[in-house]
Amino acid sequence: QSAVNVPRDFEGCSTLRKYFGQLHYLQSRIPMGAEQEAAVPIAWTEIFSGKTVTHEDIKYEQACILYNLGALHSMLGAMDKRVSEECAAGAFTYLRDHFPHSYSVDMSHQILNLNINLMLGQAQECLLEKSMLDNRKSFLVARISAQVVDYYKEACRALENSETASLLGKIQKDWKKLVQMKIYYFAAVAHLHMGKQAEEQQKFGERVIYFQSALDKLNEAIKLAKGQPETVQEALRFTMDVIGGKYNSAKKDNDFIYHEAVPALDTLQSVKGAPLVKALPVNPTDPAVTGPDIFAKLVPMAAHEASSLYSEEKAKLLRDVMAKIEAKNEVLDQFMDSMQLDPETVDNLDMYSHIPPILMEKCAALSVRPDTVKNLVQSMQVLSGVFTDVEASLKEIRDLLEEDEVQEQKLQELLGKVPPPQGSSPPPPSPGLAEVSKEWSKYLEVHEKASFTNTELHKAMNLHIGNLRLLSGPLEQVRAALPSPTLTEDDKQVLQNLKRILAKVQEMRDQRMSLEQQLREMIQKDDITTSLVTTDCSEMKKLFEEQLKKYDQIKVYLEQNLAAQENVLKALTDANVKYAAVRKALAEVEHKWNTTVQTLVASYEAYEDLMKKSQEGKDFYTDLEGKAAKLLEKARAACQAAEANRQQILEKEMKKQPPPRPTAPKPALQKKPLELDAGGLDTMDLPPLGSLVLSDLPEELRSL
């Protein structure tokens, strides 16, 4: 009811658009078309003939609403100020292109063409007036005016059609005369501005012919304007004053000053029109215009099936794009793996500017224990002292045992030279010395094993003591002890270039992931079921193509991203070649740096172990020292007892044997030659053999 009795204002236009949209939604669900099950008779009155026309077709209702929408727009345009180039042609264009022309004579192709071009022509007039008020360039104004002429010529051709003439009757002649007058008038305006352009270009001959042509066309317009309102007559007179004045001035200047040849008009380039106006588009499914679809819950099965087909199209699009992305990603991953370049640590120069946290922790721990090194040194010195004492005791015991063994051997040799009496047995060994020797061997074995451990402990201490002193000292010394790379300016430039390209690689990865995510989200949210409901089956493929175009932009971005990969990787290859020498040097320094840090940390961690082992060593050697000292005393006593026993044995053996028959000593065995006088041996002062012990005899005489 509101659409039939529509108010003559923009609210009325809004009502017509909403009703038209809801009709579109309805006819997509209910079979109300011609000869369909739910078709109902729809009646409208023709505007020119006054006849009532009835059709059982919902599209006829839509067509009549569209016609009225265009008519209402034209009324509002005529009442409005001439400042807008938007026009009513959109409704008539949509009606001409989407609906049959057989519903009524005022919806025939010729009538609709007439309406469309009349609306466009008047809209272009508005733009022309605005351009002249804005003092646009003469050539642009001429082209806009020429387009007005083109629109009115199309309208004039429609008016001259016999069907149109019979339908319009007397109106046809009046409209034709007015349109023709406008054709001549705006042609005159176009040539006026072409003449002004020639004047600007100092083509004074062309200026004359353009102004003359403008004057001729204006005269034709004046002839056709008889019977027009006074406002039209006044506008024509004003234009005549302007063009006539321009023509007379131009002709006079050329005749007396410039003397340029005046070319024929047909030798000059024709003015091509510039269509700058647009018809208000009609979109029957735009929710902003039609409001919410009041039949939204009625979704035909065909729409669901079409939605499934569209989903498959989206899935195919995604598969194609993902295949390209995955192929490029695989190449990129393999390339980066082969390069072994980590953007985070490609130069790692920052790590050399400060002490690592783990080392700072050890320095802090030692700072609250200032006597760490002193305590370790003192502990090791005490251990060394006890160790030396034990070693000295064991050596002295060994010397005693060896000396006793030598003396025992000499005794046995002496006894062996003197035949023992029949039935006598050798002297029994000293049980005290045998026990001492056994214990000494045991202590010596323990000492030798402990000696190796003690040596290793001293090596470890010497290895770690310097590091502990360093960690206990100022932090500047610790930092100075850590290796750091020395790079030239060229090396730094190589590094910066490599980091820049690696950043590009990461940027390319991130952008690719972002675009992929955007594409997936777009596809997931893309539901065109509502559009499918209102689309004819024959238009489905076209609708799919149009809807899939929304992905074109993001596909272009992805293709650009994928195409850039080859250039980025080539640049990275070149940069990596230059980086090779720098990389080797940095790797060596980093290895030294890590080794130094690990060594210092190991020295700290070894401190407690060194102190513990040092204390264990002191305890062990203190115990061993006590045992060795006791054994030494025992060895001394046993050796003294053994020596006394040997003396007794020797004395007994010497008493048992008869005195040997003296013989002249061999000169070779004498330390001092014996001079024998006449008395010989009888005159020598020799001590009695019985009073001598074996140890008192010279070495040469002991065997005698």
UniProtKB/TrEMBL annotation:
InterPro entries per the UniProt record, alphabetical: ALIX_V_dom, BRO1_dom, BRO1_sf
SMART domains, sorted: BRO1 (SM01041)
Domain of life: Eukaryota
Cellular component per GO, a single term: endosome
Keyword entries, A-Z: Coiled coil, Cytoplasm, Endosome
GO biological process: early endosome to late endosome transport; endocytic recycling; protein transport to vacuole involved in ubiquitin-dependent protein catabolic process via the multivesicular body sorting pathway
Region entry Disordered, spans: 416-435, 650-691
One of the Pfam families matching this protein, by short name: BRO1
Domain BRO1 span(s) in chain numbering: 1-332
Subcellular location: Cytoplasm; Endosome
Sections of the chain in a coiled coil: 498-525
Regions of compositional bias (Pro residues) in chain numbering: 418-431
Predominant cellular place of this UniProt entry's protein: cytoplasm
PROSITE patterns: BRO1 (PS51180)
Protein's name according to its UniProt entry: PTN23 phosphatase
Origin species: Probosciger aterrimus (Palm cockatoo)
